[in-house]
Amino acid sequence: MPVAPVDVSGCKLLITGPTGQVALPVVEHFAKIADVYALARFRKQEDREQIEALGATVIAADLADAASLEAVPGDIDYVLNFAVVKTGDFDYDLAANGEGVGNLMTRCSKAKAFVHFSSTAVYEYTGHEPRAETSPLGDNHRVMFPTYSISKIAAETVCRFVAHQRGIPTTIARLSVPYGDNGGWMYYHMLMMQGGVPIDLHPDKPNYYNPLHADDYIEKIPYLLGAATPEVTTLNFGGSQRVSIEEWCAYIGELTGFEPVYNENPKAFGSLCIDTTKMHELIGTTRVDWKDGIRRQLENLAPEVLKATA
Fold first, then answer.
1. 148-166 and 100-107 helices cross at what angle (nearest 10)?
2. Which distant-in-sequence residues (6+ apart) come within 8 Å of 292 by Cβ?
3. Is residue 148 very low, low, confident or very high in pLDDT (cuts 50, 70, 90)?
4. Which fold has domain 12-180+212-241+273-287?
5. Mean predicted confidence (pLDDT) in 165-184
6. What is the pTM of this model?
């Protein structure tokens, strides 16, 4: 059964990782209707100014440092945890990502709902088989991001533990290729195509994913909050359309005239499409067509590369 969306209008909403490509549009959207608090380390003054300009209250803190979270108000209504670090240092990354979510949930234990944004990178590679929420987990992203998959799995484990211990209604949403007008994987592929740089592809082609546009994940966030339970709801969170790297690079080629150059690499990320059954049952289908999303992305970030007839 579909869940009812939460109305966050006027509430106190904490968003972590606000300066990142994924969370920045979330801050921009919800700061217009809610009392948004944006938590990050804010080592760059321009990042602080950017977030404040959107109307959010800046909180400079480090999730790995529990004491720094005293700056978080004790009456936060809802939490959206987008924060992630991938320095390659296992000690720090596990502290920031794993222990960090525990520190945050402990500080915000009175929240009405907590959404932890994980990643489909937690799944073991199993070819073209869509991953369900119960599929085996594995160290999927080791080649490019040594600590990423393990840190994400650790964070989910800590998240469940604290939710159960403190009775915090929680959703774990495993993101699949989030993108939008401000960036994403497809934009980097366009830059590689433009520069003639080979794109690594797993030889077991096609390489399928479920790209999720910012418009869709922003629209679905109130539903993710509504799906939260103290038992913890874990679900895949991607676009309803399954699309391959080969397909989106071909479409980028249609728009720009650039030709992709592929390098078959058995160590590259393999196909990582998701089973969307549970997602559709709980929060519904997504709406942005992947071609429209990529066209919009290029129109916003690099209009000069588009062919006149595109």
1. 30
2. none
3. confident
4. Rossmann fold (3.40.50)
5. 97
6. 0.95
pLDDT over 60 at 306, yes or no: yes
Position 138 confidence tier, pLDDT thresholds 50, 70, 90 = confident
- Whose tokens are 């959206």? That residue is 80
Give the torsion sign (CA, 121, 1, 170, 167). negative
Give tens-digit pLDDT for 115-136.
Answer: 999 999 999 988 889 999 999 9
